[in-house]
Fold this sequence. Notes:
Two copies of one chain form a homodimer. With 339 residues, chain A is an alpha/beta fold. Helices cover 44% and strands 15% of the residues of chain A. In chain A, strands 2-1-3-4-5-11 form a six-stranded parallel β-sheet, sandwiched between helices. In chain A, α1 (6-13) packs across α3 (34-47). In chain A, 51% of the residues are buried.
Amino acid sequence: MQRVTLKEVAERAGVHPATASRALNxxxxxxxxxxxxxxxxxxxxxxxxxxxxxxxxxxTARSATVGLLLPDLTNPLFPPIVRGVEDVxxxxxxSPWIINTDNEPEREAAAIESFRGRSVDGFxxxxxxxxxxxxxxxxxxxxxxxxxxxxxxxxxxxSVTGDDAAGVASAIRHLYELGHRDIVHLAGPQDxxxxxxxxxxxxxxxxxxxxxxxxxxxxxxTSWSEPAGxxxxxxxxxxxxxxxxxxxxxxxxxxxxxxxxxxHGMRCPDDVSVVGFNDMPFIDRVAPPLTSVRVPHYDIGAxxxxxxxxxxxxxxRHVRSVMLPLTLxxxxxxxxxxx
Amino acid sequence: MQRVTLKEVAERAGVHPATASRALNxxxxxxxxxxxxxxxxxxxxxxxxxxxxxxxxxxTARSATVGLLLPDLTNPLFPPIVRGVEDVxxxxxxSPWIINTDNEPEREAAAIESFRGRSVDGFxxxxxxxxxxxxxxxxxxxxxxxxxxxxxxxxxxxSVTGDDAAGVASAIRHLYELGHRDIVHLAGPQDxxxxxxxxxxxxxxxxxxxxxxxxxxxxxxTSWSEPAGxxxxxxxxxxxxxxxxxxxxxxxxxxxxxxxxxxHGMRCPDDVSVVGFNDMPFIDRVAPPLTSVRVPHYDIGAxxxxxxxxxxxxxxRHVRSVMLPLTLxxxxxxxxxxx
DNA sequence: CGAACTCCTACAATCGATTGCGTTCAGGTG
DNA sequence: CACCTGAACGCAATCGATTGTAGGAGTTCG
Lengths: 339, 339
């Protein structure tokens, strides 16, 4: 377990540690005689030298490390994002620290604090609330920062999101073309950008096809979960608004909606069509398979990592946000309304 | 962004950095006058001092960091394990590095190399094949190491797993009590310990209730996936072995089995009962909801982290492996066989 | 033949915190 | 009053790698 140090490598190659360092580093190899470099490299290989990145980081003040803040990894949304981030980072020699915050501000603060202590080179954040002083402080401090899947009120923070408006529009269009005219929306939490964006997109898309989208047709779920979705659906049913189709803020809310329909003896899609959002893994295997707006989570993560690396490598670079196109996965939860 | 250093804190408090260090460190605070310590602490707070853990790690050769190797985070098995590990580690002031290896040995080697370079204090590994020279090398080198959900041939590596034998037995007993006598098994890959363990447990459990469990009743899937499960099921059907129930090596294999049944016009549970393994998230929402052996993945991860911390804190401690009890989640994919 | 230059390589400082050891000084003891 | 003790703190080395600068060997050119 005794680690091999650069000094030992240098000794074996008969050179000074400084020379060994330069020989082993791609950027500085040009400063060293080719044969010497080869000798050093050979010595390093023979001794099984692994550079101590802690020592390196101390000196260079860069850690090749990125902090990744998530609400909760067990939410099926996030693993693909994480993989996207990780794959891109790894290709660039970086790796992510992952921390779950459960959306608790104290946890988030602690995580940021801990990341700072470990001198991460940047942050990828998937937990942003619309108002988030912590994040604004991070951004203001000049630490590179990219948001995924969410945006904050502050405009000058780069983010990567899906094109929610277009996604919602395609869902509404799909329902419209099937013949639905009475469509309602189970919106997500209104303190998160996606919840707001999709809700607003719903109204816009409905207007665009000439349908009514008054507030009575929208119920807000308090979280992105099945129970919250069920509660919202119950509320909507209680209002007595006629409807033949439901657009849910995400797939979990749609599942909650399923439960309520079943409880009330209604069948999907025979009585009510349901559209979800995210197209999460295995949602094609529930009964009935859910029609859902597909969000390319892996790509979102990958793109976020790319953006972050850009800023890390060139802090002067101006911020840039990316919006990825969404598609609709049509399955059996949507059908023509009964006439 | 300019970080506050210990030296600055010391200056402000009017003491030497060494004293400041001792004052700020719980273990050495006793060496410092109480009032001085208070002064230092106040200075640290005022300046917003965050210790540079890189510098600390360099000096102390400990990083409060653990490497976590996974095959693939997007496999729904792993997020709960990761959370279990993370929650326990965080409580102890540690945090995990997560790396996906996709079960590729080179990736695994690269990950271990990278972890070594970052001086992790230990490893939690969920990727172990039965034979794994890399891991044996790690274990032999004295680096603390705990396996989760898998075991390797080498006996003296601590591991945390579910009690597969008992889980399989409870599944078989359930089917037996429903009246099934012809039961077959879709086994997982046989180069992984869980695949082997469950396969063997199947034979044992069948014998225990007095049923035949010849090799013709078992088909091996080449991976823990739906397509592999489907292929194995097709093979089994091709053999013409009569059966009224299937025990799948895991839930994904069970889903593959569902597909094949449907393709052949058979219905579950009317024609064939199916039992899965893992009880993964949302498997209760597929059609029909899958009866499955529930594995406490979060607890497995948490326990693994605890074991690892034990070894990290006391390297002399003798290895200890833990096996957690499993329960059966009975749902609608199992029913009495048709008479 | 010596000055000027180019290549390499060595020296030494540095990153920020920890820690063994030495020093100082107040207080107690004989 | 000389001496010892121990608490509290300062000094300086150290972890392992990076990097600006100095210096030495060899080459070229006036």
